[in-house]
């Protein structure tokens, strides 16, 4: 914990997690456990995720008697063992793991579920239920079975002390079955990959949907009393409203540039990236084209652009506000 504070005191820079992990103890327990907020333990596990991130944050939220594990995402055995040890330490203090919860179906968030469950089953004789939104269960198919579906608005209340109630929020956009979890008492929001501590969030159609994503950001923005965001990657975000505003305005600016490029004659994601993503390195262009496609689909749904049968995008003559859907 002290190391976490010292690392944070060094500034919320892009290398924060690297600095955090840059002590020998960080790679062994118990100092790897980051408890930014009492009863919210962040345990970053190494994953093959999208650069610049190298880890996915697994969260263990616990009361005196129960534990919820969110997103055990590492496919690597050493990382899975380290996480299992972390869970064992909490269990040894008299708790049980109640559920393993998935924010969404992407591999870097789910790859460690079976390993953790096998470990818990060996110790306890029974597997722990895996829970997620039903669209996440759909996306996972045979890859991983979800035992129970969580709907928007469900409140997960932990037995024991202190009082911990997490309200599930269906927040699609980055992934179609994405869930966030809001703790009204502390103002903490498990934001999954909708808001991350560093790097940017890729909206990749059709699993990703820009209209849904902006709606989800607005819903998160409308929560009262937000104090901290615990994202799927990078450090905790201590200025939630500013961060969400920054995300929304970044997307609006991109959308304006993209619409301007279409009006100017660019008709494919490739041409648009060449014009509107001048600040993006060429090696990232393929990914940028996916993001542009997500914006184009939103503009099409808004009525600002149309798509021909050949997949060519054109600006519509009568262009309504590009931010038609409650984004003023
Ligand atoms: Zn993701």
Can you give a write-up of this model?
The chain has 328 residues and is an alpha/beta fold. 35% of the residues lie in helices and 20% in strands. It is built from 10 helices and 14 strands. The strands form 3 sheets. A 7-stranded mixed sheet has the order 1-2-3-4-5-6-7. Strands 8-9-10-11-12 form a 5-stranded mixed sheet, with no helix packed on it. A two-stranded antiparallel sheet has the order 13-14. A hairpin with a 4-residue loop joins strand 10 and strand 11. Helix 3 crosses helix 5, helix 8 crosses helix 10 and helix 9 crosses helix 10. The longest helix has 24 residues. It is elongated. The site of zinc ion has 5 residues, from loops.
Short recap of the structure:
This protein has 328 residues and is an alpha/beta fold. It is 35% helix and 20% strand.
Topology:
Blueprint: H1 2-9, H2 16-21, E1 34-37, E2 40-46, E3 55-62, E4 66-70, H3 77-92, E5 96-101, H4 107-110, H5 113-124, E6 130-132, H6 134-140, E7 148-149, E8 155-157, E9 165-170, E10 179-183, E11 188-192, H7 210-221, E12 228-231, H8 240-263, H9 269-276, H10 285-302, E13 305-307, E14 313-315
Parallel strand pairs: 4-5, 5-6, 6-7, 11-12
Antiparallel strand pairs: 1-2, 2-3, 3-4, 8-9, 9-10, 10-11, 13-14
Helix pairs in contact: 3-5, 7-8, 8-9, 8-10, 9-10
The structure holds zinc ion.
The site of zinc ion has 5 residues, from loops.
Question: Keyphrases for this structure?
Answer:
single chain, 328 residues, alpha/beta, 5-stranded mixed beta sheet, 10 helices, 14 strands, elongated, binds zinc ion
